[in-house]
Structure formats: structure tokens, C-alpha cells
Backbone:
């Protein structure tokens, strides 16, 4: 059990920010998270966060996963003070951090996210994990499941994941898994690429368009320049910015501002 006082961190906001689909609320102050083969529970009261894990796991994995070394207050402080909408959005979502998640899981997750809502995406991913993932047991003695590796899903028929409620997205995930296994896209190299190059490479994958590629860049590669544009962002841009968000003011951390706008649109604005 690890206790930390953390500024600009709200596990509830992160859970509802649309970037992670294997995080859920257990009670008023406690959330559970599954990442790779690890399970974590966090209890938060104000700025005090209790991580139910070993010190080694916290230092070597979870601290990086939650991007705890980064000063998100510095990002918020750079919001244009004349942009009242963005200032309010950043303050409202000031506990959001950009998680450093597994690239393959994020690729599959955002393929599934197309024309979908957060609750259904979570259900689809849970179904896939329970059917094709590896079983683990958490510190409470409860079962949980890892996200299946590309080689596991690559061997499926294109429509097999319909049984996990993916619908037409089944073929997106299966074909992409095959592309990774066959080396058509080198996932290991993506982390070393600049944002634009990585985005272009991701667009080669079946079912990956510009928005999904940007989501993968932001949430799977931690490239903060990525700025995914969905209907909520389009709506905010049209209403407050004449159709286009001024990304050039926030070079290098556009994606952080995107999350504040997105969260404000779905939970606050």
C-alpha cells in the first residue's frame, strides 16, 4: 500500500475521460484498473491517493502509467487567459492526466470505439479479455484477465469477435492483429518515430482513420502533439472557435488541451 499526495490528479476524471476502458469505479472513492498483466486499486480522498500495490510495482510501472512525474499545472497555466472557455475546461478537468498505456491494447480499443459509446466499448473489451485473454488473480483472490496479444486474435476468423459484441468492428481488430503479426507495421518502431511519421504508419492499418490514429498516438504512444477530433471536439470548435481550435498556441501538448475540451463537453459544458 503506497500513499502519495498528488496535485492535478483525479482518478474519477481520468476514468471518465474516454482514454482508458479497463478502469472502473468500485465505490465512492475507489477505482480498479487493469493494465497489461497488472491489477491496481486506488482510493482517493482529496489529494491523498492510496495505491494498493507493492512499492516496486508503483515505482516501476504505475508511476509512469499515470504520468505522475509530469507537471500538469504547467499545462493548465498556459491556457490563453482570454479564452474563457478553455480556462474553464482546464480547471474543470484539472485532474486528468494522459495515461501511458499499452500500444496494442489502445489500437484495438480505439478501433472498437468507432461509432460507439464508452460503456459499450468497456463491455466489448471485457468480453474479448474474458474469452481470449489470460486469467490472473488479484490481491483479493478475484479473477481478472489480460488483454489478448495480437497473435491470439490474428488466428481468428474476421467475424469471430462479433460474439464479443463488436459487430462490424470485428474485422478491423482481427485484420489489424494480422498486420502486426505479419510485420506490416512495426509497433516497436512507432515509439521512436515523430508524431507525424507514427500517425502516417498507423493509417496503413485496416479500419484506422485520422481520428483513431490520433487517439492511438495520444493514448498509446504518449505523443502529446496528437489532437483527436471527434463530434464533441467539432462541436466545441464550431461553437467557441469559429470551426477550428487554435492548436498552434499549445504546440507540444495539444493533446492535453484536447482532453480538457473533450471532458468539458461530455461531463461539464
Residues:
Amino acid at each position: 500500500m503506497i500513499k502519495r499526495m498528488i496535485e492535478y490528479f483525479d482518478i474519477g476524471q481520468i476514468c471518465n475521460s474516454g482514454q482508458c476502458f479497463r478502469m472502473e469505479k468500485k465505490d465512492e472513492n475507489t477505482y480498479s484498473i487493469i493494465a497489461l498483466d497488472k491489477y491496481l486499486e486506488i482510493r482517493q480522498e482529496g489529494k491523498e491517493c492510496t495505491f494498493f500495490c507493492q512499492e516496486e510495482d508503483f515505482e516501476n510501472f504505475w508511476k509512469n502509467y499515470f504520468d505522475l512525474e509530469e507537471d500538469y499545472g504547467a499545462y493548465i497555466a498556459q491556457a490563453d487567459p482570454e479564452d474563457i472557455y478553455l480556462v474553464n475546461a482546464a480547471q474543470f478537468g484539472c485532474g486528468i492526466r494522459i495515461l501511458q498505456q499499452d500500444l496494442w491494447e489502445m489500437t484495438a480499443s480505439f478501433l472498437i470505439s468507432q461509432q460507439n459509446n464508452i460503456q459499450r466499448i468497456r463491455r466489448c473489451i471485457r468480453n474479448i479479455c474474458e474469452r481470449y485473454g489470460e486469467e490472473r488473480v488479484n490481491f483479493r483472490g478475484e479473477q481478472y484477465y489480460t488483454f489478448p496479444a495480437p497473435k491470439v486474435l490474428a488466428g481468428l476468423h474476421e467475424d469471430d469477435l462479433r460474439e464479443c459484441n463488436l459487430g462490424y468492428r470485428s474485422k478491423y481488430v482481427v485484420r489489424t492483429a494480422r498486420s502486426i503479426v505479419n510485420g506490416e507495421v512495426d509497433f516497436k518502431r512507432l515509439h521512436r518515430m515523430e508524431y507525424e511519421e507514427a500517425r502516417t504508419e498507423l493509417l496503413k492499418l485496416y479500419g484506422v482513420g485520422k481520428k483513431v490514429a490520433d487517439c492511438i498516438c495520444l493514448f498509446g504512444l504518449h505523443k502529446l502533439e496528437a489532437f483527436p477530433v471527434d463530434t464533441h471536439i467539432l462541436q466545441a470548435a464550431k461553437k467557441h472557435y469559429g470551426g477550428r481550435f487554435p492548436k498552434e498556441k499549445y504546440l507540444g501538448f495539444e493533446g492535453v488541451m484536447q482532453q480538457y475540451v473533450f471532458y468539458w463537453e461530455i461531463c461539464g459544458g
Notes: The chain has two domains: 2-92, 103-219. Residues 104 and 150 are 7 Å apart (CA to CA). The beta strands are 2-5, 23-25, 30-35, 38-45, 48-51, 135-137, 143-145. The mean pLDDT is 94.
